[in-house]
Specification:
There is one protein chain. By secondary structure, the chain is α/β, with parallel strands linked by helices. It contains nine helices and seven strands, in the order βαβαααβαβββαβααα. The chain has helices at 15-30, 51-56, 60-64, 72-83, 100-109, 153-162, 185-193, 199-206, 221-227, and strands spanning 2-7, 35-40, 86-92, 116-119, 122-125, 132-137, 169-174. Helix 1 (15-30) packs across helix 7 (185-193) and helix 4 packs across helix 5 (100-109). The longest helix is centred in the first third of the chain and has 16 residues, at 15-30. The chain starts with a strand and ends in an 8-residue tail after the last helix.
Amino acid sequence: MNILHIDSSPRQGSHSRQLSAAIIEKLLEVAPGASIIRRDLGAEPLPQTEALYAVALASPATLAAPPMGSLDLSEALIREVEAADVIVIGTPMHNLTIPSVLKAWIDQILRVGRTMKSTPSGKVGMLRDRPVYIGVASGGFFTGERANQPDFLTPYLSLALSSIGLRTQQFLPLQGTAFLDRSQAPLARDKALAALDLTVTKEIRAAPGRPELLSSTDRPCRDATLLSRASPGAF
């Protein structure tokens, strides 16, 4: 199994990072030989949308003949998604929604004609579905009986992923982190993980006729960060 592991918190010891790492541990219990591609958006932020990329996406004509190098980063990130059987995303809730570094990733992988197509009834995903587990850490409360703030993160991220074909999603919220001390954090994390449903992942693992996957000796983790620097004009 190939796992794409994405973190977007700028803090190395953040609750969302610990939550996504715990999800990975659970997945490795199901698939101990899994290969992990690491994309740390918090430590290695992607560039915001640049002029050449915006030009390429401006019209069907420019998409058909994009400026040289303008789609390189987008293509590398999309291929990471395509290579994954499971995607794990760790994200904090920043001002009611996702951090800008995660939005920059979304802006690169949502591409008309490559990962989605426009139809009279709306956007249709072009990628095959696969499980996406999203660990969300929030300082406050946005769901449940203690909710005291709106949630724009969940509906936006769910729609963005669904629009390219990633419809099998599970959000695992870890709320009220601003009020947790260090001793309370593991218990709160375990409570969030209790809702984790690995049924679909186990079915993928057991499905006959699955294509060959990268072995751990291919070490995709080594290359994932470098891809963000590979395209001309990426920084």
